[in-house]
Amino acid sequence: QVQLVESGGGSVQSGGSLRLSCAASGYTYSLDYMGWFRRVPGNEREGVASISTTGSGTYHANAVKGRFTISLDNAKNTLYLQMNSLKPEDTAMYYCAAGSDVRWVLRPDDYTYWGHGTQVTVSS
């Protein structure tokens, strides 16, 4: 089992920045990808960014490319999402996720473990 706990959400004005963190514990050695997803009430979860736990690559959704950056500190078992130039449409609950057999890196169904989420609200 793997446990994930997010932190760092909050309220900011358009153009501002936030950094989300996700502390992982448990059998983290079994993971091959970790990612960030978000959901607006009434919508499906959407992939924001993903990173290989071996450092082989990072992936960002088109909606956040150039503004958000995913990173992983393996020594601390902590995943990050640096969010810059935030827009009102980035407002959502953000979830950290991890998986052991991920094939489509931004597809939620490929991830087994999920955190409880942290709210990000961007006002105009």
Radius of gyration: 13 Å
Mean pLDDT: 96
Note poorly predicted spans: none
Structural class category:
mainly beta
**Shape designation:** globular
Quote the beta fraction: over 45%
Could you characterize what this model shows?
This protein has 124 residues and is an all-beta fold. Helix content is 0%, strand content 52%. The chain is built from no helices and 11 strands. Strand 4 (33-39) and strand 5 (46-52) form a beta hairpin. The chain starts with a strand and ends with a strand. 36% of the residues are buried.
What's the layout of helices and strands?
Blueprint: E1 2-7, E2 10-13, E3 18-26, E4 33-39, E5 46-52, E6 58-60, E7 68-73, E8 78-83, E9 92-99, E10 113-114, E11 118-123
Parallel strand pairs: 2-11
Antiparallel strand pairs: 1-3, 3-8, 4-5, 4-9, 5-6, 7-8, 9-10, 9-11
Give keywords.
124 residues, mainly beta, four-stranded antiparallel beta sheet
Brief description of this entry?
The protein has 124 residues and is mostly beta strands. The chain has no helices and eleven strands.
